[in-house]
Write a sequence for this structure.
């Protein structure tokens, strides 16, 4: 059972269905266990979620990508059903998370096993840094990635939901934030809101500071491998049509795509196109 449910958040039937479908594997790390979710057969493909997120950020992608791959999706340390992150011993707030994540990943798939890797938002920054330090990352895909080092196109009106006076008020605030930050289409979407609420309530790691700056751009230079950059056309965290081609031009083997009619949570709103792009990218096929 997911910790979000224990916190009193009722899960959408689609969440329950997927949670039943995947295999849950708790892998001990240097500072507690990390919950990994596995589905499918084939070469390993690792998907990393965003800040204030969980494995459920990939709800609309896991089954499609698992048709030809073994998909591994963690709750990263400090999120949902995984243990908290150890306190950093230096100036790099992200280093303890990376150490734990890599240690449990290597236990899951094998230290010398080649993987493909994708990351969304804060998970894009984590994925880029993981790719720069772990041998055997064949191909990388970053979706709405943090760490691009450019300002947001506009200021967001975010509500402080942790100060809500009732579960109903909290949910209203989270719906507002979901529409401000994550979604372009603001039609009522209880599935997206349930994912957002379950994930936010259980988040303990603070990702905002780590996501600022150009950490992803610097990590890509150290990685040097094939990288696909994907942004939603209406992503409020980056000017997609300027940022994506600029980062792609900064190194060899990089491609970029902007998904129309999608916001920051591009793999949710633009799932059919994103699933096709990722399947083709990781199979080494030409992109549409």
């Amino acid at each position: 059972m997911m910790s979000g449910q224990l916190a009193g958040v009722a899960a959408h039937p689609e969440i329950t269905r997927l949670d039943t479908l995947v295999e849950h594997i708790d892998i001990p790390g240097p500072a507690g266990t990390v919950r990994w979710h596995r589905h499918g057969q084939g070469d390993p493909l690792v998907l990393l979620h965003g800040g204030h997120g969980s494995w459920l950020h990939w709800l609309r992608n896991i089954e499609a990508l698992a048709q030809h791959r073994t998909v591994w999706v963690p709750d990263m340390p400090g999120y949902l059903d995984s243990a908290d992150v150890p306190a950093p011993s230096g100036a790099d707030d992200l280093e303890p998370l990376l150490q734990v994540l890599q240690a449990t990943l290597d236990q899951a798939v094998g230290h010398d096993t080649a993987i493909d890797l994708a990351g969304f938002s804060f998970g894009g920054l984590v994925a880029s840094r993981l790719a720069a330090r772990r041998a055997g990352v064949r191909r990388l895909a970053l979706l709405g990635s943090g760490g691009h080092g450019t300002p947001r196109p506009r200021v967001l009106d975010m509500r402080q939901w942790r100060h809500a006076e009732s579960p109903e008020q909290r949910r209203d605030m989270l719906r507002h934030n979901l529409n401000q930050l994550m979604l372009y289409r603001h039609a009522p979407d209880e599935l997206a809101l349930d994912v957002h609420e379950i994930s936010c309530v259980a988040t303990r790691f603070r990702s905002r500071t780590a996501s600022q700056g150009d950490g992803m751009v610097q990590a890509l230079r150290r990685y040097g491998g094939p990288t696909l950059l994907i942004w939603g056309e209406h992503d409020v965290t980056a000017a997609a049509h300027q940022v994506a081609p600029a980062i792609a031009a900064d190194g060899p083997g990089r491609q970029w795509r902007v998904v129309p009619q999608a916001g920051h949570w591009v793999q949710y709103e633009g799932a059919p196109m994103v699933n096709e792009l990722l399947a083709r990218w990781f199979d080494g096929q030409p992109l549409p």
Q: What stands out?
A: Strands lie at 23-29, 32-39, 44-48, 70-74, 115-120, 137-143, 227-232, 254-259. The longest strand covers residues 32-39. Residues 3-7 have pLDDT under 50 and may be disordered. DSSP finds twelve helices and eight strands in the chain.
